[in-house]
Amino acid sequence: MKAQIHNFAVWINETRPAALKENFSSLLTNSGFEVLEVVEKHFEPYGYTALFLLSESHFAIHTFPEHKETYIELSSCVLEPFNKFIKNYEK
Predict the structure, then answer these.
(1) Rounded Cα–Cα distance for residues 52 and 41 (Å)
(2) How far is 45 from 43, CA to CA, in rounded Å?
(3) CB contact at 8 A, 81 and 19
(4) Which residue in the list 58, 62, 75, 76 is annotated as catalytic?
(5) How far apart are CA 30 and CA 32, in angstroms?
(6) Is 76 a catalytic residue?
(7) pLDDT higher than threshold 80 for residue 57
(8) pTM, two decimal places
(9) Lowest mean pLDDT among 28-32, 37-41, 87-91
(10) Among 51, 83, 57, which residue's Cα sits nearest to residue 5?
(11) Could you say which of 25, 57, 58, 75 is catalytic?
(12) Which of 9, 25, 57, 84 sits CB 3.0–4.6 Å from 73 for a disulfide?
């Protein structure tokens, strides 16, 4: 088996930490990923970063509220949940 990492990254308009955490936690688990841990950092006066440690790799959220944008990135070494995540995200 060849070592391979599948990547998906996109900018979105949602910047509220609670909404991001809830929506992407659900999307990850519904896609078949196992979330092992979530590490979060809230910045002052604003901003939020979260890293979801997955058994299959990781998912990151970086908000830029001053620009009304958030960058999300999924890296996965397992193709099936990765493809499900993209399909479910696009809905």
Answers:
(1) 12
(2) 6
(3) no
(4) 62
(5) 5
(6) no
(7) yes
(8) 0.94
(9) 87-91
(10) 57
(11) 57
(12) 9
Residues 6 or more apart in contact with residue 11 via CB below 8 angstroms: 69, 70, 71, 72
- Hey, what are 33's tokens? 């990923």
Active-site residue identified among 26, 55, 67, 77: 77
- Torsion of the alpha carbons at 72, 64, 69 and 86, rounded to the nearest 10: 0
Cα 78 to chain centroid distance, Å, stands at 15
* Residue 26 a catalytic site member: no
Residue 91's nearest CA partner among 37, 26, 36 is 26
List strand residue ranges (DSSP E) for 13-68, in order: 35-42, 48-54, 57-64
Tokens 């930490």 label which residue? Answer: 17
DSSP state of 57: E
